[in-house]
Amino acid sequence: MNGSRNRLSLQKLSGLRFSEFGFDDRLTDGILASGYETATPVQEQVIPLILEGKDVIASAQTGTGKTAAFLLPLINRMLTSAHDPNAINAMIIVPTRELAVQIEQHLEGLSYFTSISSIAIYGGGDGNAFIQEKKAVSMGADIVVCTPGKMMAHIKMGYVKLSGLKYLVLDEADRMLDMGFYDDIMFIINHLPPKRQNLLFSATMPVKIRELARRILSNPAEVNISISKPPEKIKQLAYHVYEPQKMPLVVQLLSDASFSRIVVFCSSKLSVKQLTRELRRKKLKVDEIHGDLEQDKREEVLIHFKSGRLPILVATDILSRGIDIDNIDLVINYDVPHDGEDYVHRIGRTARAEADGTAFTLISPKDQRKWTQIERLIERTVAQGKVPDDFGETPQYQPRQLHNNNRQEHKRKFYGKPKSGGQGHNRNNRSGSASGKK
Ligand code: AMP
Fold this sequence. Notes:
CATH superfamily of the largest domain: P-loop containing nucleotide triphosphate hydrolases
Distance between the termini: 43 Å
CATH architecture of the largest domain: 3-Layer(aba) Sandwich
CATH class of the largest domain: Alpha Beta
Radius of gyration: 23 Å
Bound molecules: adenosine monophosphate
CATH topology of the largest domain: Rossmann fold
Number of domains: 2
Helix content: 40-55%
Order of helices and strands: HHHEHEHEHEHEHHEHEEHEHEHEEHEHH
Number of strands: 13
């Protein structure tokens, strides 16, 4: 494997903007519409390799942005190189139906302005779902996201068009092996054209995954994005509030005299500026740090903060990585971070060395889904903080419900009302022009 060479050459990249990958304009529109600005570390490393046509084995957990790391270059390759519109071009095999639905929805968002078609295929559907799936796999959806057992069942019936397949993705491969899917996966792979690009993603890399990789991948590049979990000693609390309640709650939390060095993280420069202004209005001693500031100014703010003269710093993720400031005793996430890794980095600013630390995260309803992904990544349910009674009603947080809603939405979209004019399995009508979809 030539992984170490790739890692070294790619280490220099940091905070890459998506515009720097040179994606097709239609894909760039989808990225912008999804609200992504800069690539996550796994995206930075994996996207160039896939664009080059390499096989890749990557260790990356959910919450790192790994799905877009393979979807974006795959969509781009389909848009910019010859692809057979009457064949399945890419197959993404995943362990569960929930993940299949989630990835297919993600794909729909990113490919919204393209004419790429896709379908999620998973067990447990009714007869209507089966007919839709059969139609898609025999006429050729561009990208199929499937669970192993259900795809194997379709292949056994003999109508699945696999001869044009160029890309294979195994996602959460360790989970698939744990669930006993090895034989099903090998059955499917034995029916695919041998010349294809293979991508394998796994949260962990036990020997059996290495063995699978050796059988399936050809001279793969290796990417390792391992995220350490937040130290146990950090006290984490989640506050579920409505957006307008966030500001008064932060003021309340900041007024707790037991914290003397505090960083408040926001997800955008604009949000940092607005929050700093508001806190100053409340007479709090606060300054801001973000990418719009000159280097000199940033350094000055940091010196004040480090020396203890400035107790509260409002920052973007510019401060979440690599900057070593001792004795931060409270981190407040005013916005839920974009990905789990940022969360771990942000709250890792506190509880350094021997110190204990506290991390509060404010979560409005629109960020609840992101929060469930972070909780999955750190493998714990974060205790909820008590919002003062005089704040009135606060939102419910039901992570299970969020997953179920996802599935219901998907079912309604695909099987609720048959589509006219298309192939019935996707709003993406292959024969329509890209602009026809806007
Ligand atoms: P994943 O690890 O693929 O499950 O992604 C975790 C979450 O991060 C999903 O909600 C994605 O929509 C989101 N995400 C992925 N890439 C980016 C990015 N570059 N910027 C912001 N959010 C992202």
